[in-house]
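hi!! sorry for the late reply, been swamped w classes. u asked for the two structures so here they r. pasted raw, havent cleaned anything up. first the sequence of the first protein and right below it the tokens
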Amino acid sequence: MGCIRGGFSLKYLFPCSKYNKTLGVSYMNDNNTSCALINPLNEILQKPAYLFSRSDLVRVIQTQGIERITFHYIALDGRLKELHFPVTDLYGADRVLAEGERADGSSLFKGMVDETLSDLYIVPEYKTAFLNPFNPKSLDVICRYLTGDGERAPFALDSILSRANARFQQNTGLELYALGELEFFLIFEQNPMLYTAQPQKGYHAAAPFFKNGHILDEMIRHIAQITGAVKYGHSEVGFLENIDSSMLEINGKSAEQMEVEFQPRPVEDMADYMVLSRWIIRNVAYRHGCIATFAPKLAEGAAGNGFHFHLDLRRDQKNIMRGCDGKLSSEALRLIGGLCEYADSLTGFGNMSASSYLRLVPNQEAPTQICWSDLNRSALIRVPLGWEGINDLAQRINPREQGSDVSESRQTVELRSADGTALVHPLLAGIVMAADWAFQSDLSLELAQKLYAGPEAFKSGDVQDNYPSLPANCLESREILLKKRELYEHDGIFPAGVIDYVASLLESEGKNQFDVNRIEDLEMIMHRDLHKH
């Protein structure tokens, strides 16, 4: 098939419904019903989310016995906020969906919005609507912030990402897709101690050694139904039999590390999915009497929580990360070079706690140097296997199976520096700007060539000496972000106030010095991030 690869299909919008007829395959079962994890709103309305209209949502309210509308919106702290509207009549429901509501911007964006001019409009984006998994009588929708003149609030985190993405698409004619890897610890009471897991050996563990798979399955079910974008979930490396902490909330409890990985989606959608998923994961954990934390570290010697993003570039909805020769395309190399140029300053949005830099240490599959490599999980940017030049793998195991005519590149590059303290939308906005810079400057190709680290570099230990370093703490990250702020502020993508705000957070964290030889100090630094972002 040469360079021609399979194109984009609507199968991700309807993973199990009658709309999914890619390659002539019907995903309906014999009873003409769809499978369980389709978004209920897609099923009810029989259309993809991007076609949802206000009248559609009013019809859902009318036919499904909806008792409340819940607005969600992302504040300066990166968390979802919410506002509840009881549905007493359809006119009122239609009006709130049409006009949105006011909110106190000075509270949601403290220090960014003047208290004397504090009102903002919060207006729903209909394609984000979903039925609340914790209250099926609630129709929920993500909102965007508008100022009094009806324009997107420039300082809102999702507005920044939207501006960056629009500029990138206009400049390049390409689209950037992202898939997130969401790692977290589930902290729970383990009693009695049966089938005890071994520390640092939990990767892809199964029951009964993996204790809380049923809770992970519940999280995945809700996230998959709402987003349609979950690839898989599994037990991760980390396991702590007994947490020693001054925090009564977690002291004496056990912790299992888990991961939910997503399918590639347009970068703005993925940002919303990450914030929404953290909300779902915490709520499911709470309902089981557990705690879910995305903190970078819980204990010395134990695996940390990363927040990795895989990225791919698409033209006309086709992945262009590999060329006809099977090698990384020039576009992919540019992307890698752009990420290398922005990498140190991106820690300002992706590694926002003192404990972040306890995770970024050598020999922990966490990067410390600015370089890229094939497959190696210690590199800042990793090029994983992408089914390139090899397909029909199942036929090799099942020789009676006929080959498939699908030939679609799934190549990505993975940025491995960020952790669970990340502000998702600014982080992804910075990544988009790194990609945009890469296509405006040939220096990106030079950087990609210069900063490649082959297997021999890691085996010999030369990586530490031969490649630039990531910041070692929050104060270094702040200094670099301020030094490189023009990379973010040009064309008004990042308001200066947002850069100043992030710099102030990093400075505050950096002032919390600790003695790495005192285990009490280490625990305090690690555990105070339990519920950050």
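now the second protein. again sequence first, tokens right under
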Amino acid sequence: MTARLLAAAAAPARRPAWLSPAAVTLAAAGLIAAAALPLLPMRAYLVSLLMQASTYAIAVLGLTVCLGYAGQINLAQAAFFGMGAYAVGLGTASFGLPFWLALAIGVAVAAFLGMALGLASLRVGGHYLAMVTISFQTIFSLVLINWVAFTHGPDGVPNIARPTWLGRPFDDGQYLSLSILALAAVGLFVLVLPNTRLGRAMRALRDNELAAGVVGVDTYRTKVTAFALSSLLGGLGGGLFAGGFSYVSPDQFTFGESVVFLTMALLGGVGSPFGAMLGTALLILLPEWLRFLKAIYLAVYGAAVILIMVFMPDGIWGFVAAQRRRWWRAAPPAGAVAPLPLVHQAPRDAGRTVLAVEDLAKHFGGLKALDGVSFLVRANDVHALIGPNGSGKTTLLNMLSGLYRPTRGRIVLDGRNLAGLHPHRRAGLGLGRTFQNIRLFGAMTVLENVTVGAERPNNAIADGEGGLARHALAALDFVGLADRAGAQCGSLSYGHQRLVEVARTLAGNPTLILLDEPGAGLNHGEKAELVALLKRLKGHGLTILIIDHDMSLVEQVADRITVLDFGRRIADGLPGEVLRHPDVIAAYLGEGHAAS
């Protein structure tokens, strides 16, 4: 089973994501629809509905990027949609610009303001982020209404020009083809995006922002990029909408329309471009299909939407995808897994200092979680950091990882002072970490989790999607989980999830591995396997700093031990000496036992 996974890992090298069956199907469907629909005898009203559905779907695909992939709430998509629409409207009707130039200006303005909104929202999340985007939407609506000299106020912008062909403006059929082709191109981009480095970074950010930063994802840049792409697609959809209907007004781009966009994304399935397009089509076309019910059609329409949202919380496409994963398992093809190419595999000078912690302190108000801790971690050592609960061990690891800023002191990794560096920058210098409470990217597969770890900055591994997948698979094989590469992380046992976290760290070729309670929650057999794994890592020349409460595990693997108590170092040295130290015995068992 392990060997057969290589071809699956190497598949992206042979067939790019944009040539996958789903991508080819989407592209073919778009081309066929763009060519065939304008030739069909359709009423003008139906053509208008299809134009609206295709342009709205482009904006909803922007929400798939921002909310579905990156997990960032955006309730201002109608504002970006309106920016594109007004750029085309004012550009062609008021300033005489060509349609394509006006559209480009609208897309650029929407992307720039979306980036600015993303920068302004870096420090907030959840409902606070929703409030920020609602405020942005409200401001935009007020500008459209009250800046009459520029936007024409409530009267809107009429006589919007369309692009021309051989000197004549596009007719309805030609413009519908243009809108469908644009939708197919955007849909293809959004479909391929999750299988790129940026897409995996977005999905990691969505599933666990803290872990994403520690494994090397620049969370700030990823958030801003997600907002910029979302707003860019909103502006593109709005610009095409304006050209299709030749008139725009402020009441078309209110907060209510942002809610409609969000509903479309959630109804179809916000995590998939197919879901976004399906949700848009249903919310625009379903009322028309139900008009034969006359007076009660709106009630039936509302009830249908509510039932779908209640019984399919992941949307219609999400429900279909879940059933597919439940009943269909891809058989991994045959192949052989190459050994994990650890950069630090060669024997190293045991006397060289990999990590130097100097007078490190962290104060939370009047609480001194750490108070002047110093120790050294030597190359190719397993260095244990132990102490009673509340002694400051995890606080120290959080400062090493860049999650906390020290009150004072220095942290030096391989001669480089880490002061002021964000977690992803420290990961790029070779600092890897696992967590006491397992932090995997739950909606991603095991192989995708480890691939994110392999993509940390400055990682000297093979380039390209195939090389990354092979390297990630080699890391999984090192911990004995290559046969579970295609599984969802949530389907694994607790012990196997621990090993996936270790594999994700190994895939980044770390100089120093920080293991926070790796034995927590493991049974006796799993702990024995963990001990063997740690000894194998040491045998490959890696340096490890481990926290664990299990003294038996610590004694089996540690070369040196540092003991903390009430935020201060009370012992440091060889295991036999440290574990017999009176202060250590007193910290764990009390003064009476130390005296005896």
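hope this helps!! also noticed smth abt the second:
Residues 1-14 have pLDDT under 50 and may be disordered.
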